[in-house]
Amino acid sequence: MIRLGLLMLVTVAGFVLVLTLYGDDDLRAARRPAAPAPSSAAQDAGSPVLTAPAGSLAAQPPVDVVPAASQTPERTQRFPGPALEPSPEYPSGTPDPTAEAAAPLGAEGPVLYVTATRVNMRSGAGTGNPVVTGLDGGTAVEAIGPTGGEWVEVRTPGGQQGFVAGQFLSPDAP
């Protein structure tokens, strides 16, 4: 097995040596045809070469030049599917600026304040529910439900509703 490996190694080394010594010349270069002069497709088809006499071309632009902007059709975006309809919330297409914003804090329940540095407001009572938003310490919220339980349903000044652990809420402003 070792002899076979040595024989293969010597054979490969011999090929490398022969190619290094004799492989520098390009033996086919002498037999390659010279590159043809460039010609047009019309000349390939047998047409004579056309050249304009000197000074015969007019140096003035064509009379009827049409700008490219007027030639390009307007591109419209096409979306597959049914036509879009306005939201039922805003049938006119835009919100009514005179519509009343969220009710002020304290309109439905007592105002409570966040006592921790940062508290998660969740979509349901319990830590297994997803977080709706985070409330910073000192944020005033309105209690919507009972305030004596482990979790209190609250509404933020921005109108978001969710649940906060009752241990992090206090009726006293910080």
Automatic annotation (TrEMBL):
Protein known as: SH3 domain-containing protein
The record's listing under InterPro entries reads: SH3-like_bac-type
The scientific name of the source species is Paracoccus hibiscisoli
Question: In this protein, which residues make up the domain named SH3b?
Answer: 109-173
Q: Where is this region: Disordered?
A: 33-103
Please list the residue ranges that the record marks as compositionally biased, kind Low complexity.
33-42, 58-69
